[in-house]
Amino acid sequence: MHRHHDTKVKNLAEEIIRNAIRAANDDPRFDPIEKRELPSLIFFR
Fold first, then answer.
1. Are 24 and 32 in contact (CB under 8 A)?
2. In whole angstroms, how large is the CA radius of gyration of the chain?
3. DSSP letters for the chain
4. Ramachandran quadrant class, 38 (left: phi over 0; alpha: psi -120 to 50; beta: rest)
5. Given this model, what pLDDT does residue 42 score?
6. ∠ CA 23-28-33 to the nearest 5 degrees?
7. Contact, 8 vs 2, CB < 8 A?
8. In the structure, what pLDDT confidence band is assigned to residue 1 with cuts at 50, 70 and 90?
9. pLDDT score of 4 more than 70
10. Cβ pair 15, 9 in contact under 8 A
C-alpha cells in the first residue's frame, strides 16, 4: 500500500493471477509435477 491506500498495481486481480502463475512455475522449493501424479491431483475453483 502506498499513500492514500493506493496500490502499486492498477489491477489487483491480475497481479494475484500473475503471482500465482509465478509461484506455480518458478518456486524452487517444489519439484515439477510428473505425469504419473496428475490423476491424484485435486483442483479447487
1. no
2. 16
3. --GGG--SSS-HHHHHHHHHHHHHHH-TTSPPPPGGGGGG-----
4. alpha
5. 92
6. 75
7. yes
8. low
9. no
10. yes
Amino acid at 14: E
CA atoms in the 13 A half-sphere facing the CB of 7: 8
pTM passes above 0.70: no
Angle among Cα 11, 17, 22 to the nearest 5 degrees reads 125
Alpha-carbon gap, residue 13 to 35, rounded angstroms: 30
Indicate the length of the chain as a whole number. Answer: 45
Amino acid identity of 7? T
State the amino acid at position 22 in one-letter form: R
